[in-house]
Amino acid sequence: MPTQKDVELNVDGSCHLGPPPTISIPNQPGPVLIVWTIVGAEFDPDRGIDITSDPDGAISESHLIDAHHWSVLDTNDGSNTQVIAITYNINYLCEENGKLVQRTDPTIDNQPPTG
């Protein structure tokens, strides 16, 4: 069973998403399930979390759980020798006006081994 990392995204009444946190995945053998919860909006059902760069092919699954939850599986096999930044877009529908909004700056950092 994968380790789970939960990330909360908050959208304000004006449809603005504050800066999402950088997600640091510890270098470990075994996958990590990242689950985003969005509050104040709904994920775009087709591209809620859209991986834009995955240099080491770590993301093996990405899917909508429901309108407010999206998950990806990061295989993070413990072999990186440096931080591997995976970039993605957050695509959401604002509950206020149904507008599709995209946030393009978040990252997932797969960490190198320690020691």
Could you characterize the architecture of this molecule?
The chain is 0% helix and 52% strand. It contains no helices and 10 strands. Strands 2, 4, 5, 8, 9 and 10 form a 6-stranded mixed beta sheet that branches. Strands 1-3-7-6 form a 4-stranded mixed beta sheet, with no helix packed on it. The chain is elongated. The relative contact order is 0.29.
Shape type: elongated
Strand content: over 45%
What kind of oligomer do you see? single chain
Rg over CA atoms: 14 Å
Taking pLDDT < 50 over at least 5 consecutive residues as the criterion, the unreliable ranges are none
Order of helical and strand elements:
EEEEEEEEEE
Number of helices: 0
- Largest sheet descriptor: 6 strands, mixed
Helix content: under 10%
Mean of residue pLDDT?
A: 84
Content-based structural category: mainly beta
Features:
single chain, 115 residues, mainly beta, six-stranded mixed β-sheet
Strand and helix layout:
Blueprint: E1 3-10, E2 23-25, E3 32-39, E4 41-43, E5 49-53, E6 59-66, E7 69-74, E8 84-94, E9 100-103, E10 107-110
Parallel strand pairs: 1-3, 2-10
Antiparallel strand pairs: 3-7, 4-8, 5-8, 6-7, 8-9, 8-10
